[in-house]
Amino acid sequence: xxxxxxxxxxxxxxxxxxxxxxxxxxxxxxxxxxxxxxxxxxxxxxxxxxxxxxxxxxxxxxxxxxxxxxxxxxxxxxxxxxxxxxxxxxxxxxxxxxxxxxxxxxxxxxxxxxxxxxxxxxxxxxxxxxxxxxxxxxxxxxxxxxxxxxxxxxxxxxxxxxxxxxxxxxxxxxxxxxxxxxxxxxxxxxxxxxxxxxxxxxxxxxxxxxxxxxxxxxxxxxxxxxxxxxxxxxxxxxxxxxxxxxxxxxxxxxxxxxxxxxxxxxxxxxxxxxxxxxxxxxxxxxxxxxxxxxxxxxxxxxxxxxxxxxxxxxxxxxxxxxxxxxxxxxxxxxxxxxxxxxxxxxxxxxxxxxxxxxxxxxxxxxxxxxxxxxxxxxxxxxxxxxxxxx
Amino acid sequence: xxxxxxxxxxxxxxxxxxxxxxxxxxxxxxxxxxxxxxxxxxxxxxxxxxxxxxxxxxxxxxxxxxxxxxxxxxxxxxxxxxxxxxxxxxxxxxxxxxxxxxxxxxxxxxxxxxxxxxxxxxxxxxxxxxxxxxxxxxxxxxxxxxxxxxxxxxxxxxxxxxxxxxxxxxxxx
Lengths: 390, 173
Hints:
CATH architecture of the largest domain in chain A: 3-Layer(aba) Sandwich
Largest interface: A-B, 48 and 49 residues
Order of helices and strands of chain B: HEEEEEEEEEE
Radius of gyration of chain B: 19 Å
Helix content of chain A: 25-40%
Number of strands of chain A: 13
Order of helices and strands of chain A: EHEEEHEHEHHHHEEEHEHEHHHHEE
Distance between the termini of chain A: 10 Å
Largest sheet of chain B: 5 strands, mixed, barrel
Oligomer: heterodimer
Shape of chain A: globular
CATH superfamily of the largest domain in chain A: Thiolase/Chalcone synthase
Radius of gyration of chain A: 20 Å
Strand content of chain B: 35-45%
Number of strands of chain B: 10
CATH topology of the largest domain in chain A: Peroxisomal Thiolase, Chain A, domain 1
Strand content of chain A: 15-25%
């Protein structure tokens, strides 16, 4: 990981190409690499109505100035950014590129994410809105209520996730929301999807993030003797039968004929990353997880095996996932402080790992950070986890 | 094609709706919001899925072209009614108006509705649905028994769009 760069998250009213170009130039400057020396560019496509929107790779290549680089664009919903990293990494490991630029950017529409127009009864994303009006927060509400019923989590626990992440986001110049939030403010915000309130649910944002990746040989030649290194990129799919109601589905798979795997899809994403990296949760210095809602952050604690099933709220209450804790989670401020800019978000998670592992994260630096993990999940069976080390 | 849900009562004043039905041309057509996902009226109402003849996996929403069990050699997919009753896996509500293609009258104040994910024991599947009108999250607990009943999603000038609703058992309203 030679370079990392971002365009700050917010609602800026401009186009995704502008944001992406700013982030790309920042990452190139951070890496000390001239764009004309980049052999390949991989873009994470924008999201429109749950599906690929604008082509990213070639758009950014043109905006930065055509220079003949190999190009690819990927789409994997919320995991798009991680798949872009995965594509870049595979090109480097196979020897077809020495230096690769990865870019994700979006200008998110206002309000609830909604499906593309037209009558599309063969599209599960269209159907869940037409038949049920089931927005993304409705699914987050279902997961949160389930945790309350099964594990005894409380809405106060959920609010404490927001309090933690808002305090960290206040320290991050790239975050959209930079104000501390109290539990009382969470409790006073409007219910969106019971039991979740407005401040439990992440917003949608404009933003961009970029990375410059290279082979170790190039890094050494370039004078980066001990760069942050990617140890694993997990982009596994679920296994049949998937028994958790995932977005945008109206029903789970039936488990009547095949016994479900012992671990959920989300847990399998993390396990694959741990196995590829040859590490375990006990080796982690920090984790960046996809807190689309406060309750989902707690779910990730368990899926990453930071604690046992049902113990996430306890881990939070003990302060283990806060600053100075055993395993700080979302020291960037998380989606709670950024809002989601879908194709940029998974890349932004890796940017945070890069800065933390370099020891350049300023006021939010995790002391002595050596190993970090990211995790996310999105529509249509996509998810990702990246492990980085130094 | 026109379906009249109300039997005109002889010797009584008819509602405008009943007159429309009797007239036969002005009444709304009752049309499922999705074809082939449910069938029947009142107590005979059922969600419809499909079952693979080779591995017995049940699919809802229905799969008609292929079985999605990766270990299945592939069988015939036959229509099958799902269990009428199940238990609440989780629930939530929609306090804000969902975006299109959900249909609601922007002139009217938004009325939240409740969503339940229901676990059907014999199919080992969880199916999402709205509750019957009037049921709120305060009426529900995880594990509570509910049953599927016919419902109306929305009406426009020509069509009453029908759907399925979940209703806690023991509630007859």
